[in-house]
Write the structure tokens for this entry.
Amino acid sequence: MLTDTKYNFLVQHFKSRIYNYSIYLLKNKMDAEDVTQEVLIRIWKNLGSFNILAAKTWIMKTTHNLCLDYLRKRKAEFTKNPYSIDDISDFIESRDNENPMITTENKFTDEKIKNTIKQLPDNLKSVFVLYEINGLKYKEISESLEIPINTVKVYLMRARKQLQSDLKKLRLEEVA
Amino acid sequence: MKEELLNKIISVAYGDASLKDKISIYFLAKKDGEVKNLLNEYKHSANTTHNLGFEECPDNIIEKVTNSINSKTVQSKSMLTDIYSIIFRRPVFSGAVLGVIIMAVISTFIINRPEIKQQYTKQQIELADEQVKQSFALVASVLNKTKNTVEKEVLTDRVSRPIKQSFNLVNEYLKGENKNENIN
């Protein structure tokens, strides 16, 4: 009974954070759904092994590691078969969002930013999404990604600069 | 522009700079157009990023997970297992529970001191009664012997006989004097 309550609380609180983080890292909704599902099952299995107060770090760490596994797998598949259906669908998805008809509209600024964030290097993107979007603190990010706090700060600053520079380039391209 | 200044501008724009930095950048932006432009650009990106929000997790994922969990754990955990996993698997909770138990035991001993209740068998009581009687009898016999000794030996031989002898002597002495007076 208590286990169910605890689990339901964690699922309600973290399901969107897990899904959101996975989308940014994997740039693919199908994979993000798989990762979210896997993380939620792992939460259930390991419910007794972590403290609820440290749940956020444990969950984000698990999500991050699973995303890295997916990226590695994808990379290996791409080396084996560079024209797999998954990659083509990813490509189509990403190209759709770069369609000038859509991006030039102001109301799609959110999409533009999201896509620009997705294009950031993985290490910068992880820190940026966890800090700016998921609202984790430096220490929590450091524990989730297993990197020093100073590295978290450096990555965050680099990510902000790169995001700004990419958005600037995008704006210039639109004007041109 | 210096890297340090740029970092400060970015931190101010994203809202995680110190108050000191915020004030200094605010005044600098008033004076310097380039700083102002940079600050506004970063602020715009920061605001948009912070307002992105979460993409809602599709409900079908939760359904799939629930089905998967239910099929794996048909025998659901009992309330006792839950309490055990929550309390006793955590060292802090275990320590706290142990502390409470120790305190309860100590306070019980202090408040309700147990009375020493000794129970004897009937035979033991009878034996003790007999022994007491015997000891009283011994004491009584000793006292009787002492009384007899005092009455028969001490009083007669050592007290009354010397007194009697002394009275006899006095009588004889007085009789002798009377005889002498009569002769005279």
